Amino acid sequence: MSPASHGVTRLLTCAGLTAALLLPAAVPAVAAPVRGVPAAEGEKGQELPAMPTALDPEADETACTPASRAKAEKQDWSRQRLDLDRLHRQSDGAGVTVALIDTGVASGAAGLDGRVSAKGAAGDDCVGHGTFLAGLIAGTGGENPRLAGVAPGAKILALRGTDTRGRAGAGLVVDAVREATAAGADVIAVAVALPHRDGALTRAVASARRAGAVVVAAATPDPPRGGTGETPSRTYWPAGEPGVLSVADMLPGGARPDDAPRTGGVDLVAPGAEVVSGGPRGDGQYLGNGAAVAAAYAAGAVAVVRAAHPEEAPDAVTRRLTATAYPAGIPQLDPYAAVTTVLGDPARSVGAERAVRPVTVRDTTAADRATGRATLFVLLGAATVLAVLWAGFAVSRARARGWRPAGAGGTDQE
């Protein structure tokens, strides 16, 4: 091999090794989530009992969810993600009433400070799920202010959309929406999701919106117990009604849980995995999951927006929430931006155009797509480097054996 050929080979080899080391290192930087958040507290060793959405329907006797003896040691990821500490310096929802339609709310629950009124039996929450959600909407956090809800200054009107064991019924939800409308609630949060549309519910929701309420609803129910396989995508109600803010749950990375029921037309996603809140008995905490949890966070966001912008009509409040949502693959609730953003600001206009259109929930996020592009880039780069190395190696070996390109360095004898 000539000295020149040897030098070329060494140069190509060094370049190839450098590229092989640098290209893979670029993948984490490109594929990292846009907004990094801690993992759910349950993954960090903070063990809390799970808050059920319903009690065992086959049990002979109704045993209410027992008081939790465990207390959260730190603020969970969901509150950090929603930037609640900074939000509360702008608005806490004071003067706003949120009607919560679920399993009821215990009026004496820790952290709700006597701000709960209840219709009928809704002041008795055997399941505990409604009280858990009320803490996310308007709780003060009790002994731990960092576990406060989105609107700790708001009031809660508790209404039943289920029986005592947590089984939802269309008639119960219809009556609850009508009662919330008659009471003049500013926000109506429906935590249950019905599989079939009901004409009376359609009329009740339309009447509530005409009366000036913003209606927020869970986009899906919880996954069925013991379910196997993926269920077909479908619309749930009242989330599917016109003008209702439909909210689904998301994991810390922004995607929906693998076992979440599929649906379309979702307006927002909000934290709905390993979220911490209190219950109807005792001063301990639980972990909750699901679209109802996400809807509670969105209802609290509506409350702080209505308190900060009382001049805005209900439809304008809804548009504000969707227009200021974090513009990921699935628009993500951002209550601080909803309260503080001046709509029409050019800096937010692109995100607003993307967020105002309802989207179909997917299992991927913008970060997932970035990961695919980065992986493709690395593979193509690696293939190019290997091709250059092989060509250099082949040329140098051929020259070492006496090969010369046609017309170079002499002629053949005839």
From TrEMBL:
Keywords: Hydrolase, Membrane, Protease, Serine protease, Signal, Transmembrane, Transmembrane helix
GO annotation (BP), single: proteolysis
Residue span(s) of domain Peptidase S8/S53: 93-325
GO molecular function, one term: serine-type endopeptidase activity
UniProt cross-references to Pfam families, sorted A to Z: Peptidase_S8 (PF00082)
Record's signal peptide: 1-31
Coiled-coil annotated residue ranges, if any: none
Transmembrane segments: 374-395
UniProt KW Translocase keyword: no
Record bears the keyword Isomerase: no
InterPro entries: Peptidase_S8/S53_dom (IPR000209), Peptidase_S8/S53_dom_sf (IPR036852), Peptidase_S8_subtilisin-like (IPR050131), Peptidase_S8_subtilisin-rel (IPR015500)
Alphabetized Gene3D superfamilies for the sequence: Peptidase S8/S53 domain
Similarity annotation: Belongs to the peptidase S8 family.
PANTHER family xref list: CEREVISIN-RELATED, PEPTIDASE S8
Protein name (database record): Serine protease
Organism: Streptomyces tsukubensis
